[in-house]
Amino acid sequence: MISKFELDELVTKYENKEFIKDDPVQFVHLEKSKEDTELTGFIASLFAYGNRKIFINKLKDLFERTDYDIANYVKNGDFKNLKGFEYRFSKDYDIIPVFEILKKLYNESRGLEELFSFGFTPERGEKYDHFLEKVVNYFYALAPKNAGHGFFHMIPNPKKGGAMKRMNMFLRWMIRKSDVDVGIWNFMKPKDLYIPLDVHVARQSRDMGLLARKNNDYVAAKELTENLKKFCSEDPVKYDFAMFAFGVELNNNKNKKSKSNSLGRENVR
Fold first, then answer.
1. What are the Cα distances from residue 142, in Å, to 71, 96, 155?
2. Is the pLDDT confidence value at 89 over 80?
3. Cβ pair 175, 164 in contact under 8 A
4. pTM of the model
């Protein structure tokens, strides 16, 4: 198993402002007001899957449509200019209802922080699951009757056992305060967060001896988080970005080596 010292070294190397430019958190750092920051983060997290370059370009297109004035756009927009916008599973008829629900939320309450904080208690385990369910249930209750797969992929149901990677990543951005995370919400503490488990973090955590479970699901996210708490009980999720970036770098190095070997073989011919 990797040591605390080695893992902390990865945090020092990777959790810095240099890595923001290649991560969806870059959009969160463009904003100044609390409403703009949390809305930008939430929307960016919905599309943060698949090829990073592709979804980051998609997010640039999306935020350009809002004139990078997201709070005003959500509160007052009619969202007609989202017609034709799509990303993988989600089409415009999936995406526009999410914006309409956010509009209702911000015009009738204090927004996403109030929604996420509703029902949260510091205890872990099932109550944490229930807290996420209440967030999801708000969107489901207001979803159009003909809501399709694309809508539910953006707002996944924790009852199905998925890792809830994107929602946990959004919470990491909002709760933690670091060079990468903005930490503008206070109803949770960093120790209450779960790791945003994706394929890179899962692969690296297994290689490091931190995760035994084979499935990349909610149980695995919980197992990894509990093991990381042994290294830092107050902020176990601080290792997320380090493991992710380290995994990406290893993968890139393998690809470069593979291309180099391929070119070498071609030259021999």
1. 20, 12, 12
2. yes
3. no
4. 0.90
